[in-house]
């Protein structure tokens, strides 16, 4: 089999949440366990950090991986979804899994995959664990897909777990309240393994305490332990309980919302240090300053051009869009142009309510079947009195906007990872 044939096999035979939505979600771990049993349980052969949450889990995973790489460890990184290439999901020290490893895995296990009939995500998780074990990584940073309790990644016994925050997303699967979603995310808690709640949400404190007690997991809830003080030239001083941890540190992720994830990220690293992992302050500074370059992270307030400023960001739910628009307001500009496309399950009205009426809007869709069609998107925009144009794909929209934009304008592309992934310039 050739590489493209392997991808066709994986995409066409196996239901994918990225393409199919809810019908790809499995309500148990049976298929994952069956696959891993065939593979001689590679998940038991690797040390892991497990990360769940509504927003921030992807950037947190990449940041932790970057610091561990700067600390001279061989670091596996499993994240989803991918933007450009399937291979982005599985990396070691920033290098994507090679095509031959994917070909070998599919050829070797194609028959049993047909028998077990896993979802695309279940199969990808099994492939990742197998690859990390075969390559003998020192540690793997593993991001959940949806939820936590029933997520295919939830077969590991991590060194430490992190829950970044809880928001109303994927409510058709995880539940329609923060409390219901929090229970699903808390499903990654494991006996005797510390779990960090990186975002302080007062209404969920008692719920997490109950879940941690039931699981016998040491709970670390972060509220005001960390102080992050902005300094000149984009640098920060970071203290914990008034003790200086890091000074003159800067991040190459320029998204303002990323700073909110720093306490959880640092607490994971400090918990790893307590377990004997060697991570120095200098290595933290180095790793956090080179997250995108060392791990290949894309689409987080990524600046594609400066004259005019073109920004690509994968924010898609209400909480993410609010944070994104707060940062956009900080940029001086003549005119704001927003290129926007969204998945079908989004509440577009509540997101359009966060957008400034004076911006110019360029609605788009793309190749992914889960993206909302232009006609439906345009009707919602008209209802919200947004001045808009319509384009069949993001690159047509971007080409047009660049042709009319002033050098002092800002062009923002957002709304869905599926849209961001189709940008030619990314």
Structure in words:
The protein has two domains: 3-295, Mur-like, catalytic domain (UDP-N-acetylmuramoyl-L-alanine:D-glutamate ligase); 302-421, Protein-Tyrosine Phosphatase, Chain A, CATH 3.90.190.20. Helix content is 38%, strand content 17%. It has helices at 3-13, 17-20, 30-38, 57-70, 99-116, 120-134, 171-174, 178-185, 205-215, 262-274, 281-288, 291-295, 318-328, 348-352, 374-383, 394-404, 417-421; strands at residues 48-52, 75-78, 90-92, 95-96, 139-143, 160-163, 195-197, 219-221, 226-230, 236-240, 243-249, 302-306, 309-312, 336-340, 360-364, 388-391, 410-414. The chain has an eight-stranded mixed beta sheet, sandwiched between helices. It has a six-stranded mixed beta sheet with strand order 12-13-17-14-15-16, with helices on both faces. It has a three-stranded antiparallel beta sheet with strand order 9-10-11, with helices on one face. It is globular, with a radius of gyration of 21 Å. The mean pLDDT is 92.
């Amino acid at each position: 089999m050739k590489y493209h044939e392997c991808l066709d096999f994986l995409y066409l035979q196996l239901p994918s949440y990225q393409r199919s939505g809810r019908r790809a979600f499995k309500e148990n771990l049976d298929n994952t366990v069956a696959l891993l049993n065939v593979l001689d349980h590679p998940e038991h052969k690797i040390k892991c950090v497990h990360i769940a949450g509504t927003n921030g889990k992807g950037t947190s995973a990449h940041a932790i991986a970057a610091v561990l790489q700067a600390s001279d460890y061989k670091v596996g990184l499993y994240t989803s979804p991918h933007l450009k290439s399937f291979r982005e999901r599985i990396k070691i020290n920033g290098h994507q899994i090679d095509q031959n490893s994917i070909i070998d895995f599919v050829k070797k296990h194609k028959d049993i995959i047909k028998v077990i009939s896993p979802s695309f995500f279940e199969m990808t998780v099994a492939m990742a664990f197998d690859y990390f074990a075969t390559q003998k990584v020192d540690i793997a940073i593993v991001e959940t897909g949806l939820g936590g309790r029933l997520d295919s990644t939830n077969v590991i016994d991590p060194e430490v777990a992190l829950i970044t925050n809880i928001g109303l997303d994927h409510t058709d699967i995880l539940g329609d309240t923060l409390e219901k979603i929090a229970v699903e995310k808390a499903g990654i808690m494991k006996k005797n393994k510390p779990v960090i709640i990186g975002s302080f949400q007062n209404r969920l404190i008692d719920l997490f305490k109950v879940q941690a007690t039931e699981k016998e997991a040491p709970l670390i809830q972060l509220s005001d332990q960390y102080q992050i003080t902005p300094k000149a030239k984009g640098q920060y001083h970071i203290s914990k309980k008034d003790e200086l941890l890091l000074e003159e540190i800067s991040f190459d992720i320029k998204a303002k919302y990323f700073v909110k994830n720093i306490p959880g990220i640092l607490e994971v690293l400090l918990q790893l240090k307590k377990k004997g992992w060697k991570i120095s302050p200098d290595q933290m500074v180095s790793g956090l300053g080179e997250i995108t370059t060392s791990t290949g992270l894309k689409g987080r307030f990524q600046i594609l051009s400066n004259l005019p400023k073109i920004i690509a960001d994968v924010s898609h739910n209400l909480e993410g869009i609010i944070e994104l628009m707060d940062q956009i307001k900080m940029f001086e500009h003549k005119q704001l142009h927003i290129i926007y496309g969204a998945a079908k399950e989004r509440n577009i009205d509540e997101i359009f309510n966060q957008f400034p009426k004076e911006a110019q809007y360029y609605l788009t869709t793309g190749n992914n079947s889960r993206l909302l069609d232009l006609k439906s998107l345009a009707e919602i925009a008209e209802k919200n009195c947004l001045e808009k144009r319509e384009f069949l794909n993001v690159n047509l929209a971007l080409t047009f906007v660049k042709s009319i934009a002033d050098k002092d304008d800002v062009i923002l592309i957002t709304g869905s990872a599926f849209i961001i992934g189709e940008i030619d310039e990314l």
